[in-house]
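Input (structure):
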């Protein structure tokens, strides 16, 4: 039995959902409420970070470790190329995506979305328990302060994160100028990771989240500026998600 503990909107959780779906595995989903998730997460896996995948009583944390585990235990539709020479390259792209795309996108998003409580509560509680929205509404000011403090979200860091994101998008765009895939000649976890972590900018249906359309400003304009360079994300979602 596989159970994924997640936040539906989290792009790191989307990495794991995608890997599970790509391997045609049956799994249960448990959606946790941000701010109220930490007790469950710590009890399962030691720290509060999601995603957590529990397989037959064994809890795994960290999306990259989970992908490695899934490829080891369920080798069908491998996410790694067979050639050893390409494997390090794939892992380097995934690490790059986790650090240089996942983190700055989240900061840029929450810098705007935390100013829109109704919208964020809907995003956090979609597909969750019926009482989630009531709880989070009441708890929102504390949640906002905690998220701003934990992720160091302010005007200055949001500006820096946007620059970092722009550089990361340029690097991916350059790499894909003459290639359909980031590494080698087939889909790997490098493509999965980069596409999943960029996906909140593209709002693909298969992500399974009802993203706001449009996002509140300045987020929507910022995203519009990246549209041409990240069109590849929709292609990869169409072909492999
Ligand atoms: N490196 C981790 C990052 C996961 C992560 O940052 N998760 C966020 C959601 S996007 C989280 O759980 N935040 C709440 C917490 O850490 O308590 C991974 O790849 O799984």
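Output (sequence):
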């Amino acid at each position: 039995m596989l159970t994924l503990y997640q936040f539906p909107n989290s792009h790191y959780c989307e990495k794991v959902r995608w890997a599970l779906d790509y391997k045609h595995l049956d799994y249960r989903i448990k959606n946790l409420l941000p701010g109220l998730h930490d007790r469950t997460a710590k009890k399962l896996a030691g720290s509060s970070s999601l995603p957590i995948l529990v397989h037959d009583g064994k809890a795994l944390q960290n999306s990259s470790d989970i992908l490695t585990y899934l490829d080891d235990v369920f080798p069908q539709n491998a996410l790694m190329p067979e050639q050893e020479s390409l494997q390090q390259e794939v892992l380097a792209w995934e690490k790059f995506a986790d650090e240089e795309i996942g983190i700055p996108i989240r900061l840029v998003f929450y810098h705007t979305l935390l100013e829109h409580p109704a919208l964020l509560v809907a995003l956090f509680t979609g597909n969750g328990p019926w009482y989630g929205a009531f709880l989070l509404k009441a708890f929102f000011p504390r949640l906002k302060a905690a998220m701003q403090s934990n992720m160091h979200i302010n005007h200055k860091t949001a500006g820096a994160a946007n620059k970092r994101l722009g550089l990361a998008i340029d690097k991916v765009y350059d790499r894909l100028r003459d290639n359909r895939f980031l590494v080698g000649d087939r889909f790997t976890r490098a493509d999965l990771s980069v596409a999943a972590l960029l996906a909140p900018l593209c709002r693909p249906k298969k992500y399974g989240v009802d993203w706001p359309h449009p996002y509140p400003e300045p987020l929507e304009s910022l995203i519009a500026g990246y549209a041409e360079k990240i069109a590849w994300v929709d292609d990869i979602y169409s072909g492999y998600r």
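Notes: The longest strand covers residues 2-6. The first helix runs from residue 11 to 22.
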